[in-house]
Every structure is written in structure tokens, then in C-alpha cells.
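Hey,

Quick one before I head out. I ran the complex with S-adenosylmethionine overnight. Inputs first:
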Amino acid sequence: MIPKLLEAKIRTIYPESFDKFNTIVKLKKSFRVNTLKISKKELIERLNFFEIEKIPWCDHGFFVSNENITNTIEYFLGYYYIQDSASMIPPIVLDPKENELVLDMTASPGSKTTQMAALMNNKGLIVANDINMKRLTALRFNLQKCGVANAIVTNLDGRWIHNMQVSFDKILLDAPCSSSGTCISNPNVFSSWNQGKVNQLSRLQKQLLESAYKCLNEGGVIVYSTCSIDPEENEEVIDFAVKNLNLKTEKIKLNHIKTRDSLTVFEKREYDSSVKNAVRINPFDNMTEGFFICKLRKY
Ligand SMILES: C[S@@+](CC[C@H](N)C(=O)[O-])C[C@H]1O[C@@H](n2cnc3c(N)ncnc32)[C@H](O)[C@@H]1O
């Protein structure tokens, strides 16, 4: 059952899709080729017993119809990484380069860190941070399994990470969130969702974004993302950033995926017009998890 307050939000944001939010969908499984270990061509040849289909918006991503995709030698060798197809987008938007110093502020279990390491050809440096020691075990395991050699792992509260006094060219803040956008395939999200938690997360997200801003080089880029559909965790955080920090939003160009403009008004709140540059991914437009993604540059 969708909580009443969340229902009201969905009816405002995605009125035409509301009925679909009431039904659980089995999303197609998807994976990303780990180009640190194998080429796309070679992996696809080796996985010829899978029914696979290219993910149109991610060069190294594939949908797969088979259920048991963890049951292969190639999976154990780290040749591919199982990841939701929308979750592959924030690193593509950040576009980290081989010579850059990159912070993955909330990195565990490492889906996006491993993707960024591959985009950087294991060059440059990624600081992969997470506050949660238990989740760091998964992060370290995934980095090792994928052959990532350009990352160091830290266990800090992202709100104070600027005290390290290191400044970065690019920062990914894939923020802790209510995960309400994952409700398409995970009904349990509804039972743990409540407005108090959303408000608390919104405060944390603003603090994390402010800390990211403080350790970003001038001209540097932050990509802020959540898998939440709640405006308090999305547009409201970006509104805070553009009004209080020297950050400007930039347009995001994504091909072959349906995105929607983010909101400039929600209930009685009006957000800065530049928040419109952020994109929303409605889970039912592309049958993915729901996402919110914003690109910000320090000036
Ligand atoms: C959405 S998950 C990140 C998923 C990850 N980026 C990936 O793609 O695999 C959010 C992460 O934020 C971490 N986190 C929560 N509060 C934090 C804080 N104050 N500082 C650093 N990490 C935090 C959580 O432990 C969790 O692992």
C-alpha cells in the first residue's frame, strides 16, 4: 500500500502514471561490461548462451532475459557487474577523465565507483568513501573483483570530508535517500517510507552537498543523484545549493532515454528556475528504477 502522503506526491508529479505505481513490475536484469578486464565484444561472444539486448543509453550496458546471471565463470571473474540500467547514468553524466582526481562521496557497494574506474581506464585517482563500515566490505570486495587499481577507500562522514583538505576535479554524490524511486520493483520501500525520514534525509543531503562543494576545485563538477521521487530529496536540495553556494546547474544531454524536466514548483514551494536543468527519470517511462540527476559546476 502506498502511504497517503506519498500517494499525493505521485499524483502531483506523475499523475498519468499513478495507477502503475500500485503494481509491482519485474524489471529486466541488466549488467555492465567491466572493460578493465575484458572487451565488450569478447564478453558478448562468451555469453552467447544469454539472451541479451543493448541498453540504448549506456555504451557498455546490456539487458538480459535470463534469471541466473550470477551463475557464470565470467561473473565470478568480475568480467561484468550487475547494475540497474538507470543507475549507470550518473557516472556517464560526471564523465570522469584519466587525469582527474575524483571523489565518490557515498560509494558503497561500489557500482558507480567501478564504473568510473573503467571510464578512467584505471588512471587518475578515485577516493571512494562511505560512512558505513559494513558496507565498505562490499565496496572493497567489488573494487578488488573488478580489478580497480586507481581507487583508495576512506571511511569518513561525508559531511566533514572537506576537513581532509584535498580538493577534487569531480565529485559524485549518489546520496543516501528514501529509495522511493525503486518502488517499481520493490514494494518494501512503501512500508519504510515516511515524511519524517524524508525531511531528515533532505537535511543530510544538503549537508553532504555543501561539504562536496567545499572540497571541489573552482570550475569542477558535482553530479548529485538519488533514486528517490520525493522533491524534498531532489529539487529542494538543488534549490538550496544554487541559492547558498557558488554552484550553477548545467543542462544534461542524455540520448535514447526518456527523461522529464524537474519541478520548479511543488505544493507551495517555488524552486530556483535553474533547478529545471536537473532531470527526473520516471520509473515507468523506461522500466528502470526512478532517478533524479543534477550536474552542478563551481564558479
Ligand atoms: C545510495 S547508496 C550509494 C550507492 C553507491 N553509490 C553505488 O552506486 O553503489 C548511499 C550510501 O551513502 C552512505 N552514507 C550515508 N550517510 C553518509 C555520510 N554521512 N557520509 C558518507 N556516506 C554516507 C550509505 O552508507 C550508503 O552506502
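Residues 74 and 269 are 50 Å apart (CA to CA).

Talk tomorrow,
K.
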